[in-house]
Write a structure and sequence with these properties.
The chain is of the alpha+beta class. It has one domain: Roll (Nuclear Transport Factor 2, Chain: A), CATH 3.10.450.50. 34% of the residues lie in helices and 30% in strands. The chain is built from 3 helices and 4 strands. It is globular. It starts with 23 loop residues before the first helix and ends in a 5-residue tail after the last strand.
Length: 161
């Protein structure tokens, strides 16, 4: 008859006396990685919430409502009226919005226009009724801000040529 022998429990190396020595650098590294990953996940989730609102506005034919999601810096080199017209042109040429899928994303902690914060780039494959498009939306949230704002937006599609 065979008997099962339970493995011995892990016991960290002991130093002098009863004091146990834990690998502190490894524990701190693991904690830092965990906190960094949690911070990145939260940044991604918050940024996606903004783009979800953008795509909802496009889906329901209200690109003017989407303009509220853009940072003031986005309109420094183009007027709101001109960008709104470009969004309407996208809908006219590509057709009604069907769905979008996130294909890639990147997060950076960096300074943007003199403010420190999180810079998130989201790449989407977007299907419209007549053609598909690749949309890259960059968002930024400064340390002082309460939400992400769109700071750059590029739409590429053969249907726009």
């Amino acid at each position: 008859m065979k008997y099962f022998q339970a493995p011995k429990p892990f016991r960290p190396a002991t130093g002098t006396g009863n004091r146990r020595l834990y690998p502190l650098p490894q524990i701190l590294l693991a904690l830092a990685l965990c906190l960094s990953a949690c911070d990145s996940t939260l940044a991604k989730t918050d940024a996606i919430a903004v783009t979800d609102n953008y795509f909802a506005a496009v889906k329901y034919g209200s690109p003017d409502k989407a303009l509220q999601l853009y940072a003031p810096s986005f309109f420094e080199d183009k007027s709101k009226r001109r960008w709104l017209q470009q969004l309407k042109t996208v809908q006219q040429k590509l057709g009604k919005f069907r769905f979008n899928q996130l294909t890639d994303w990147r997060i950076q902690e960096k300074e943007f226009r003199g403010e420190k914060g999180h810079y998130v780039i989201l790449n989407y494959q977007v299907e419209y009724a007549r053609a598909s498009a690749e949309e890259t939306i960059a968002l930024f949230k400064s340390e002082d801000a309460d939400r992400y704002r769109i700071v750059d937006h590029n739409i590429h599609s053969p249907g726009l040529a």
